[in-house]
Design a protein that fits this description.
The complex is a heterotrimer.
Chain A (H helix, E strand, L loop, with lengths): L1 E10 L7 E11 L4 E5 L6 H8 L7 E6 L2 E2 L5 H11 E4 L11 H6 L9 H14 L15 H13 L5 E5 L7 H16 L3 E5 L3 H4 L6 E6 L2 E3 L6
Parallel strand pairs in A: 3-8, 3-9, 6-7, 7-8
Antiparallel strand pairs in A: 1-2, 1-4, 4-5, 9-10
Chain B lengths: L1 H18 L2 H36 L5 E7 L2 E3 L1 E2 L1 H7 L4 E7 L1 E6 L4 E7 L9 E4 L1 H5 L1 E3 L2 E3 L6 E5 L5 E9 L5 H4 L2 E4 L1 H8 L5 E2 L1 E6 L5 H11 L3 E5 H39 L3 H12 L4 H32 L7 H5 L16 H27 L5 H4 L1
Chain C lengths: L4 H30 L7 H38 L9 H6 L4 H26 L7 H27 L22 H5 L3 H25 L3 H28 L18 H21 L13 H29 L8
Helix pairs in contact in C: 1-2, 1-5, 2-4, 4-5, 4-9, 7-8, 7-10, 8-9, 8-10, 9-10
The chains are: A alpha/beta, B alpha+beta, C mainly alpha.
Amino acid sequence: MIHLDNIRKVFNAGKPNEFVAIDAVHLTIDAQRATALKGPSGSGKTTLLSILGCMARPTSGRITLKNREMSSLPERFLTEIRRETFGVIFQQFNLIKGLTPLENVMIPAYPKGENFASLKKRAMELLDMLNLADKAQAKVEWLSGGEAQRTAIARALINNPTIIIADEPTAHLDSRLSLEFMEIMRRLKEEGKTILIASHDPLVYESNVIDRIVEMRDGKLVVHGDGR
Amino acid sequence: MRAIAKQRYILDLVLSSMARRKGKNIALVLVYTFVLFLLASVLFSVESLKREAKLILQDAPEMTVQRLTAGRQDLIPTDFIASISTIRGVQSVEGRLWGYYYDALSGANFTLMVNTALNDKMGEIVIGTGVARRSNTDSGLRTLGKNDIIPFKTADSSVLPLTVKGFLPSTSELVTADLILVSESDFRRIFAIGKDLVTDLVLKVKNGKELGTIAGKITQIHPDTRPIVREDILRTYEAIFDWRGGVTMMVLSGVLFAFVILAWDKATGLSAEEKREIGILKAVGWETSDILLMKFWEGAAISLSAFFLGILLAYCHIFLASSILFAPILKGWSVLYPHFRLTPYINGYQIATLFFLTVIPYTVVTIVPSWRSATIDPDSVMRM
Amino acid sequence: MMFHPGIFALLLGSGLTAAMLCYSAYEGLRIIGSWDIDCGSEQQLELERKTYLISTLMSYAMGFQLLSLFLFIYTADTLSPLFIGAMCAAGSLKVNGFGYPTLMIKIGSCLLAGLWLIVNSTDNKAHDYPLIRIKYWLLLLIAPLLIVETTLQGVYLLSLRPNIITSCCAVLFSADADTAMSDLLALPHWLAQAIFFVSAPMTLATGLYVYLKAKGAILFAVATLCHFVISIVALISFISIYFYELPTHHCPFCLLHQEYGYIGYFLYAAILVGAISGMGTGIINPFRSIASLHQVIPPMQKKLAMISMSATLVFMLIAGYAVLFSNLSMAME
């Protein structure tokens, strides 16, 4: 589904603090599977994740999504595709303070100018599915860790994406909530979504939800026993 | 329509986002409003004064003829009247007697003018409200009432006491504040002017378009005269008020500049929270142009509220408080100030000028900072 | 020098707009030099971000130019009492030799800015910025024009001296300054009408053809440009008199006054929109063959043609209404 070909990402090129985040990465992500990116911090997995999610452009190399070349697409087209295809969950949930969970969930759909009534309905359905219906109009600051996590998941689902991307989703969660998170991922995978998680938490990459582990170290892929 | 729904969503987000950062935004709006208040006050005052002058000059004579000796105004012989009346197109010619009288006791210059209605009431005067307010009598500085006496020092060193018998209406204060109407014989006694001389001549002409030609003929017959057409006076007043308004605005340009710097500072100094919010929006699928739209609405909201508030306050300042701050500069230096209410007059031109002087610089200065914040990388929140 | 607030406003506005244009042109030049869409280097990403800045600057510049055009006329109008014989903007602009040239260039730069925005919008619809170099070269043409305009405007405004009383001798002003610039443009009625009523249907017909077939855009663009000039001449020559209800009043600026319901703004807006959108179809036509624009340009041309035709029709409706329902009736030959 996503194919990376000789991807390299350099920061501060040509300057004294030049930094090669990832280098010579060849990778294919299969559809409807859950893949985990494993590696210590500084290994480049976050950078790889952002390139996989079309949130950053590689310095060199090519990336194709569903057979469509993405590397040199201008931002406005990239963003449009990204919005429809990917749903992102962040390490710190990154909800906008001062807004309700309902509003937070609807925000990714605003640029399309969708009809308010249908958008709200869809958002409420998602919150309901994640048992957050009664918290829909609360203030985001008052949510518990688990509730914020599920709001973030609902937000990632609002545009009906085919691929879910999560960056260290369990970093601020206890074991119970981490397992709960992986359960939700399992459900989503069963619905046909593709899952991509970057994490150094064993609870994640050793979970049986994960079909494949991709390991990274110092910006390069580590060739692993059970996978490419 | 999608485009409209999108704008509404963005506007909604902008307003709630601004409400969460009240402190910074309010400071900016207040300064913005203040700047607009100052500039609008100047503009409104100037326009109002121009209109007043126009209204008042409506009753001024179409043409006035003065005599100049060595470049200064001199008295004009009454036989000029006969020669000028013969010019084709002149309807009537009359002599006017008026002059300035310096009253040492109050330190003010009065305008003394002969009014034919008083000619058989020697010893009586009618005074303007400004004169009444600032006159010195034997009993000290107080407001004059009916039957009070003003002693006039005549040109031959005697004193002529004249009794106040009436007051000029305060509605005409702008032109009559310092005016004293007097009888002809009293006037001639005070200034020792003979019966064959008058101060100037006023003309009525049959056809307004002929004024230029007639003026030309007058100077041919009497080369030492200066005909002044009413429109010339009007233009001069307009130019004076415009000029004074302009100079005041030049002085205020310092305030404008400071405001622009404040706006720049506010726009470039994005708090970490604001950066994070924009980062989140970009990460979940908002495009740079969407963020730019957001910034546009933010600027529009600030500009519009400051604009309305500033103009409203200026309106109150001018028309309820008679432009306390700027009146002295605009009306000119004088000891006797007419008290008068400026009548409200606002037109689209003033609004447009204010827009150009404030909203445009504000917008321009925020373009680059807005763009910088809008081009935050989508993956920046992941790296934060 | 006249210390008039309106003059300050215009000088400030034009100065800022010219500065924005020059900065855009400068950045455009840098983009032309280093652009490489296939490269993912940080420099390229920075250049792509810069394109947003330039688009934003140009959009605002266009808005300001349009406003500045009307403020300029309005200012000339407001200043007219200060000049002998000037009854409205037409007279003020004649006071020195820079008034009308400034106006012409202002109109020209409005048109060019509008066209640039159309090219920019077209470029943004393609996946590979095919017109990136062309549009920034265009910018290098527009920027100097803005500088010229700002200079001319400055010279015009700063050389104005009101006709006021001087304290010395008898200064007599000639009361017959020539305000009849409009007379120069007021062709004999029948001629102006004939030209207008030939140009209008021709323009509409070519527009319809573009709308239906997405072809013939160049012809349409030329037609709209001609119609733009013809409409203005027609307005001055025989349409304005119906608004003023005076056979001798041809002034193109008095229509903007309150007493005529500000109808001038609608008329001139319609003329400008019609011209810009019509010429827009033509200016993007040469790029039809570029692969990434192949699907983009024809629908855009159709949309622009529709806008242009609507604007032309609006103009004719308003003008027609005035001619039919005015209290003035002229014998139409």
